[in-house]
Amino acid sequence: MSNKKPFITLDQAQDIIADVPTPFHLYDEKGIRENARRVNQAFAWNKGFKEYFAVKATPNPYLLQILQEEGCGVDCSSYTELLLAEACGFHGSDIMFSSNDTPAEDMKKAYELESYINLDDLTHVDFLQKTAGIPKTVFCRYNPGGTFDLGNGIMDNPGDAKYGMSENQMAEAYTRLMALGAENFGIHAFLASNTVTDDYYPELAGILFELAVRLHKRTGANIRYINLSGGVGIAYRPEQRNNDIMAIGEGVRKKFEEILVPAGMGDVAIFTEMGRFMLAPYGCLVTEAIHEKHIYKEYIGVDACAANLMRPAMYGSYHHITVLGKEDAPCDHKYDVTGGLCENNDKFAIDRMLPKIDKGDILVIHDTGAHGFSMGYNYNGKLRSAEVLLCEDGSHKLIRRAETPADYFATLDITPFYKKLKL
Ligand SMILES: *Cc1c(COP(=O)(O)O)cnc(C)c1O
């Protein structure tokens, strides 16, 4: 039944494990590059198109550099994400700064890097002027309020979301920014998350293109960029259909021809800020079965835990699991696959039908390439795992070492206990 295949075999995994102990997140360079090329191809009709990878999804410099080589920029929302972008050689129009509840030093840093600054609120016009200055180009984030319904069961609730501003506030922001010297403007909105449908971007584009035409008429603002942000989903479940990025790009093109071109705005550049779609399928968490337990249910204990991948515990998310070497074995055993946190929600799978698992088996937890490692935490003194790149030539490279107890205790170095730790 499973049509989800891992991008490594047992032999390949064992080869890496001899070098880097489990658990670790593994990324597939070939898959990442091919997908980035498809994204750029899908929007090649738009002259200024650029994908700004959402750094929060996978903040690793090697991966950012691969995306940079494929023509992507980065979307940052904090000071440290900006530092990482800077270290990777991103600058100016390579960086989109889409933050909210923004600290002054973050805003200053974004301004110094000459990044595109995306204001989350009308009050941030004054805030930007006072903390940094008004750049030539400014983006404003839009929130239409109410509910956003794609009519296929996919719905979200912008009216309850903390982000963005109303149309009237957008108009006022543009007017004030022009008075303060800004010349070019962008619109940004993020209305629904992990949408597994080809309709989301085209629907959002229609809304934002019409908004752009109205705002241009009303304020005279020179709207040059429309940022569709993130939210394009992936098929975490084997029975789900993958989004077709070519169809998505074509859907956005149709709206562009329908709305912007007749309004004389055919030179608007389209931006995206995808995180999940760019990387999630091209990463996996590799972990070893270290215990089995038979009580009222059957449990398999692995050496990874929710601190390495929080999505199942936090959102009840499905992540497909493959037992390497048993890809074609019948799934005739029902297991809960657990980590070792003292939290009963530390389960990568509940009542999952899998092949019989033996201690020492290597499990691949799929689709952890985005919002996986990066959401990690240190609860229960658990340490963050390593990250490994499976290179295009089949070799592998350690792109982040695993944390050690010394990392965990580093911020206690101001206390007398630090010296007593046996590190
Ligand atoms: C999280 C985020 C993204 C990326 O979202 P995905 O669902 O990973 O595509 C893009 N833009 C902003 C502002 C975000 O906060």
Model description:
With 423 residues, the protein is α/β, with parallel strands linked by helices. It contains twelve helices and 19 strands. It has helices at residues 10-17, 29-42, 61-69, 79-87, 104-112, 124-131, 167-179, 200-219, 245-260, 276-279, 311-315, 405-409, and strands at residues 24-28, 50-54, 73-76, 95-98, 116-119, 137-141, 148-149, 155-156, 184-188, 223-227, 269-272, 283-294, 298-302, 321-323, 333-338, 347-354, 362-365, 386-390, 396-400. Strands 1, 12, 13, 14, 15, 16, 17, 18 and 19 form a nine-stranded mixed beta sheet that branches. Helix 7 (167-179) crosses helix 8 (200-219) and helix 8 packs parallel to helix 9 (245-260). The protein is globular and about 70 Å long. The N and C termini lie far apart (47 Å). Bound molecules: pyridoxal-5'-phosphate. Pyridoxal-5'-phosphate (PLP) is lined by residues 54, 56-57, 75, 98, 190, 193-194, 229-232, 273-277, 370. Residues 54, 56-57, 75, 98, 190, 193-194, 229-232, 273-277, 370 line the site of pyridoxal-5'-phosphate.
Keywords:
423 residues; globular; alpha/beta
Largest sheet properties: 9 strands, mixed
* Beta-strand share of residues: 15-25%
Mean pLDDT: 97
The backbone outline, from C-alpha atoms, is globular
User: Which structural class fits the helix and strand makeup?
Assistant: alpha/beta
Report the C-alpha radius of gyration, rounded.
23 Å
**Regions with little confidence, pLDDT below 50 for 5+ residues:** none
Query: Count the helices. How many?
Result: 12
The end-to-end distance, rounded to whole angstroms, is 47 Å
Q: What is the number of beta strands?
A: 19
Which ions, cofactors or small ligands are bound in this entry? Answer: pyridoxal-5'-phosphate
Helix content: 25-40%
